[in-house]
Specification:
281 residues; alpha/beta; 9-stranded mixed beta sheet; 13 helices; 9 strands
């Protein structure tokens, strides 16, 4: 959304809030007399408007979801505009990572009991690696927070959820809570295994939350044939759940971002995906 669109949307939201706040229906007795329902319904609408107003001032929040080894972490690094984490940490640990902008490097593990382990990103990733096979440890982790001084993160907040094979029941419910806060979900497919794993049930569950889902066919540079045929296949099989589908080489995209190589960014499919996110979501 462009800056002028955001301002216009914010103005409409504020006007709607003003109408509700000045309405005689805010009087409990009037509301019950006319509608026969409690005032809570009007309060819910007001709360929703306040949430929308807050979103106008926030960066686009993207949730990344996909199978283990689909390349989610490499795509995360490309979108963030720099190296956020070692891919073996985010791919292999059952943690939710929230990556956002900060004036200095900062990281923290937020536990479900309210305690926090703070440090540099390197220190926190080391702790996660040491506990990689400890399921009880990750059951206690609510979210891993990473803040980095990367310019791209002034426009995007990225949430990386565990790979589908590593999500436990408890972590699944936490991931779902993050879907509710998201503006868009990127569902990353491993291009080598299209059609081999049934993900329609998972996609349906996410789609029911009402968030737009963008399909990303990763490792497209390693596949034979025209890219369009893979896009057509995914749209035919799963298009009912997907707003759009993009072929991508996350590895090439990350190299292009790091080296400032516009040609490689274009070849990777990254520019098309980023343009869509910034202008269509």
């Amino acid at each position: 959304m462009k800056g002028s669109d955001i301002v216009e949307a914010f103005t409409y939201i504020q006007e709607a809030k003003s109408i509700i706040e000045s309405s005689p229906m805010r009087n409990e007795n009037n509301w019950r007399l006319i509608f026969g329902t409690p005032l809570n319904e009007l309060k819910t609408i007001t709360a929703d408007l306040e949430l929308l107003a807050a979103k106008c001032a926030q960066p686009l929040k993207i949730v990344i979801l996909g199978e283990v080894k689909s390349g989610k972490s490499t795509l995360l690094n490309a979108l963030a505009g720099g190296k956020v984490s070692p891919t073996d940490v985010t791919e292999a640990t059952a943690s939710i990572f929230e990556i956002s902008y900060g004036t200095r490097e900062y990281a923290a593990i937020n536990f479900v009991d309210g305690s926090i382990e703070e440090g540099t990103p390197t220190q926190i990733f080391s702790i996660l690696s040491q506990n990689q096979n400890d399921q009880a440890f990750f059951e206690r982790c609510k979210v891993v927070e990473i803040k980095l001084p990367l310019t791209q993160l002034t426009k995007l907040t990225i949430v990386d959820t565990p790979g589908l094979a590593t999500i436990t029941g408890q972590n699944a419910s936490r991931s779902q809570a993050y879907f509710q806060q998201a503006d868009v979900v990127l569902w990353v497919f491993n291009g080598h295994y299209l059609g081999q794993n049934d993900v329609s049930a998972e996609l349906e569950a996410v789609a029911e939350l009402g968030k737009p889902i963008i399909g990303v066919i990763n490792r497209i540079d390693e596949l034979e044939g025209e890219r369009d045929k893979y896009v057509r296949y995914v749209k035919r099989e799963l298009g009912i759940y997907l707003r759009e589908v993009f072929p991508l080489s996350a590895f090439q995209a990350f190299e292009g971002v790091i080296n400032g190589d516009d040609k490689k960014l274009g070849q990777s499919g990254y520019n098309d995906l980023l343009y869509y996110l910034e202008n269509k979501i």
